[in-house]
Write a structure and sequence with these properties.
The complex is a heterodimer of chains A (462) and B (463). Chain A contains 20 helices and no strands. In chain A, helix 3 runs parallel beside helix 5 and helix 10 crosses helix 15 (348-367). Chain A is globular. Helix content of chain A is 73%, strand content 0%. Chain B is globular, with a radius of gyration of 26 Å. Chain B starts with a helix and ends with a strand. Classes of the chains: A mainly alpha (462), B alpha+beta (463).
Chain lengths: 462, 463
């Protein structure tokens, strides 16, 4: 089920919220679990059993780890192999087979398994729980239903943020649904919905049409407009989803950590990764980079660790070499910043410009269907290529005054205006305007949802 | 913020999210007038078993049909148009003075050449092949392209849409030399527009009105040399009672009337079978007092022609099926056949194989030239004919192929230079060839001849 679909907005969310509000507290977890499973099964009626199987297996493995502390390393190793194995089979099998076929010029048959929605997210959440239990950061969860609720809770189930177990362990058992939480949660939900419905969807129409042009039609102008449209689309799409998830969490008494912190104002690639998909970056830092030694085992090892993390970050996003190259590309610039660039000594404006340029170019690789497409687009962005007749036609149709206005609004909305206003007007001065704005945005989203049909979330496929 | 205000905010949001459910509760009709709302209520049990697609079907159904959706769409488009002076529906372009245009005509508006010179040559080959087949059984054939509204009324287009190319597809098509006779509607309508105060197309519809259709009708009758109803000698009645398709897309909850004109018609014809609407795939009209049998391969523009033509011929068959199916035509052998197609859909003629049997002939082509091309074949036996659909792997090279012939067992078959994919109504022309034959061809021995730049080559690759 998609957050920005009429079924979710008009049926699922209000009913689940209202019924949860009147149920006795002790039934809340069971109720939310049942409806989270329904939420998942709505789009994945068969793969819901895979998720249940994974949850049950991890529950038992955690109990085993707790019961046999002498063998917990072995149990953890098995757990990692089990979870990564599931991910490898269901997400990466065909990618591996295609790569092997290509390298060795052989032809193993592809499995053609459909990708279970959100498998990357819930697998990483499950692993977070297992690592926490292994490291005694949190006691083992003895109630299967509670663990399952952590893994499957619908706001963050299919596109994050990746919630770490220790961050919500307490709230799974003790939380409070309040009027304040509902109001701020709903407001946050509306902000996320608006990012998705009013901005990301509009940017997607531009990006999709321009990326669909034959490579011979790609001019410098087309390539830049497509790149900028996608830059905004992916940010508002993904951060919008995170806002909705965080907002709904608040409505039900959970407090999820932030997933984005205005990444496009970053002053270096390193800074960008502290602001973009923070739950994934911190997951890799906590459970991969630091256990591998981080930067404590010498420079060479630190470089290897970084590159490995960025390789995995790219691969996590999808079973394609373009994602891997995108991850390594970021890792490469991060290393350059530490060794050759010394970005921190650059003028501030130059740092922001450099970062935005690297990120924009990176998303061209990320968005492209293939390396030839990525290369043509990147080349056209750098080497002046005139518009063809068809490209001019596309741009004339797409770049209406409204679209140009939406580009400007998107740029404006990528800046930390909200935090700045809060600093400027401390206290509750902005509360009434912000709730009023949220209400207007809500009605705009409802009308837009009814009238338009384009609605996919980019991060669903990860 | 005060607690009460937060409560009010929460109540307003939750209440408004429940509006559609309240609509169900108050038994508001589920149907709305949006174009895409014709979905059926899904059922959990289908064919005596659990419907595993229920959730998908329900999503689709609810998204298209939830109560008040038509009102929401109407409000959205009204707000959008007021704020931004453009359409909130990507399929509709808001022009000047209340004129609405269909977005799919944009390439023609901009004069961006969507058909290449090779495409145009292929188009003439396809039409000539059809003409030859029909001519062999004594059927006179005509082709008639209906100009887009924007082609005739470009002065009402929004300022940001201006032609940037030299010629649109219609201009280029009109310059083609065809064996099949062309009924030139563009010049007929253009002259009528210049000499009459009546509009030819509705403001709020993508189609012509009854006056535009009458001009087309008289042009047809003149071209095929058949007695007409002399509609243009009448002064038609004008009424404000037409609901345009484009305004319905923008404002489904409102009734917005456009002007329509009406002629006095004899109305002596009957439909052979009851029809649901003029949109039906097959319509047959009969009028025993008249002569002649007309067959029309048509689209929605012909809806307005049906009353006129049916009152002018002994029998008229209107076929809206696509790809065009000529099997019944070959059986019934009408005197006259007209292919009517909208300007915006000209490319469809290069994306779907006409269902017409390619008869074997003596070999007429000899060539020593060869060309390396991989071909993917798909041969099936459907609807009483064998259908061969082939795709050239190297599409860039195949783009220049304008004619294709097959030789099998010392017999030559004319193939259409058309590859028909699953979505033959999209705007992507793919290159290959296809044909219908009485029996399946032996793909092991068939020779493929392709014409490139006027020279025949034998394809060296065999299936």
């Amino acid at each position: 089920m998609v957050f920005s679909s009429p079924v979710f907005i008009f049926l699922f969310l209000p009913f689940v919220y209202l019924i949860n509000g009147v149920l006795p507290k002790k039934l809340s977890n069971l109720f939310l679990l049942v409806f989270s499973l329904l939420f998942y099964a709505w789009g994945e009626p068969l793969y819901v059993f895979l998720m249940l199987f994974s949850g049950a297996a991890n529950y038992l493995l955690a109990l085993a780890m707790d019961r046999y502390p002498a063998h917990k390393k072995h149990v953890l190793l098995f757990t990692v192999l089990f979870n990564i194995g599931l991910l490898a089979v269901f997400k990466y099998a065909d990618f591996f087979i295609l790569s092997i076929n290509g390298i060795f010029n052989i032809s193993f048959n592809l499995l053609h398994l459909p990708l279970p929605i959100g498998i990357s997210f819930y697998t990483f959440q499950t692993l977070s729980y297992m690592f926490d239990v292994y490291r005694n950061d949190t006691p083992v969860q003895r109630k299967f239903l509670n663990l399952l609720l952590y893994i499957t809770f619908f706001p963050q189930l299919i596109a994050g943020p990746i919630v770490k177990y220790h961050d919500v362990a307490l709230e799974i058992e003790h939380r409070k649904v309040s009027l304040h939480g509902t109001a701020t949660g709903l407001r946050r939900f509306v902000v996320g919905l608006s990012k998705k419905v009013l901005l990301a969807n509009a940017m997607a129409l531009v990006a999709d049409r321009l990326y669909a042009l034959p490579l011979a039609e790609v001019s410098t102008f087309v390539a830049w407009i497509a790149a900028i449209a996608y830059l905004f689309q992916i940010y508002f799409d993904f951060s919008g989803y995170s806002d909705m998830a965080i907002g709904m969490g608040e409505m039900f008494g959970f407090h999820f950590k932030e997933n984005f912190n205005y990444p496009y104002i970053a002053s270096s690639v390193q800074d960008f990764w502290r602001r973009w998909h923070m739950s994934l970056s911190s997951w890799f830092r906590l459970y991969v980079y630091i256990p591998l030694g981080g930067n404590r085992k010498g420079k060479q090892r630190a470089v290897f660790n970084r590159i490995l993390v960025f390789f995995l970050t790219g691969l996590w996003h999808g079973a394609s070499w373009t994602f891997v190259v995108w991850g390594l590309y970021h890792g490469f610039f991060l290393l350059l910043e530490e060794t050759a660039f010394h970005v921190s000594k650059w003028p501030k404006v130059l740092r922001h410009f450099y970062t935005l340029l690297i990120v924009t170019f990176g998303f061209v690789i990320f968005r492209s269907e293939s390396f030839p497409q990525a290369l043509v687009l990147l080349k056209s962005m750098i080497v002046l290529t005139p518009n063809t007749l068809r490209a001019s036609g596309e741009l004339m149709v797409l770049m209406t005054p409204t679209t140009i206005g939406l580009f400007l609004i998107s740029a404006f909305a990528s800046l930390p205006i909200g935090p700045w206003l809060q600093r400027k007007f401390p206290g509750s001065t902005l509360e009434i305007p912000s709730y009023t704005l949220a209400l207007l945005l809500w009605f705009a989203c409802i009308l837009s949802l009814a009238a338009t049909t384009y609605n996919p979330f980019i991060y669903f496929r990860f | 913020m005060k607690k009460n205000l937060k409560l009010l905010f929460c109540l307003l949001l939750l209440f408004s999210s429940l509006i559609p459910v309240i609509g169900y509760g108050l038994s508001f009709a589920m149907r709305n007038d949006a174009n895409d709302s014709r979905s059926n209520v899904p059922s959990l049990i289908k064919n005596n078993s659990f419907n595993i697609s229920f959730t998908l079907e329900f999503d689709d159904y609810f998204t298209k049909s939830f109560p008040f959706r038509a009102h929401f769409i109407t409000a959205y488009n009204a707000v959008y148009q007021t704020l931004f002076h453009q359409s909130g529906n990507e399929k509709v372009i808001v022009g000047k003075d209340g004129y609405l245009f269909f977005e799919e005509t944009v390439d023609d508006i901009l004069d961006v050449e969507t058909l290449t010179e090779f495409d145009l040559t292929r188009l003439s080959v396809v039409l000539n092949d059809i003409h030859r087949s029909l001519d062999e059984v004594g059927i006179r054939s005509y082709v008639m392209v209906v100009p887009n509204k924007a082609t005739l009324y470009e002065e009402y287009l929004p300022e940001n849409l201006k032609p940037i190319g030299n010629k649109d597809n219609l201009d280029r098509y009109l310059n083609l030399k065809l064996d099949m006779e062309n009924i030139d509607l563009y010049n007929a309508l253009k002259n009528a527009k210049d000499s009459s105060t009546l509009p030819l197309y509705h403001k709020s519809d993508s189609h012509w009105n009854n006056f535009g259709a009458a001009i087309a009708y008289e042009t047809i009758m003149d071209s095929v040399n058949h007695d007409s109803l002399e509609l243009l000698n009448q002064t038609p009645q004008s009424r404000n009672d037409w609901q345009g398709d484009l305004s319905k897309m923008l404002y489904p909850a409102m009734t917005i009337y456009d002007k329509q004109v009406y002629y006095d018609l004899p109305e002596k014809f009957i439909f052979s079978q009851a029809i649901r609407s003029f949109e039906d795939i097959h319509i047959e009209s009969k009028n025993p007092t008249l002569d002649g049998h007309l067959w029309m391969m048509r689209d929605s523009f012909a809806n307005a022609l049906i009353p006129y033509l049916s009152d002018s011929w002994n029998q008229v068959n209107y076929s809206r099926s696509f790809p065009h199916d000529y099997r019944d035509v070959m059986l019934q052998k009408p005197d006259t056949l007209i292919i009517e197609i909208a300007q915006r859909n000209l490319n469809w003629l290069l994306q779907a194989t006409p269902v017409i049997e390619s008869k074997p002939k003596d070999v007429s082509i000899q060539t020593d030239r060869t060309i390396d091309l991989d071909v993917h074949f798909d041969q099936s036996f459907t609807s009483g004919l064998a259908y061969l659909n082939a795709y050239f792997t190297d599409q860039a090279q195949a783009a220049a192929i304008t004619e294709v012939k097959l030789i099998e067992a010392d017999q030559e078959y004319e193939a259409f230079p058309i590859y028909q994919d699953n979505d033959f109504e999209d705007d992507t022309i793919e290159y290959g060839f296809s044909l219908y034959t009485a029996t399946k061809l032996n793909l092991e021995s068939v020779k493929i001849l392709v014409k490139i730049n006027g020279i025949w080559n034998r394809v060296s690759s065999t299936p």
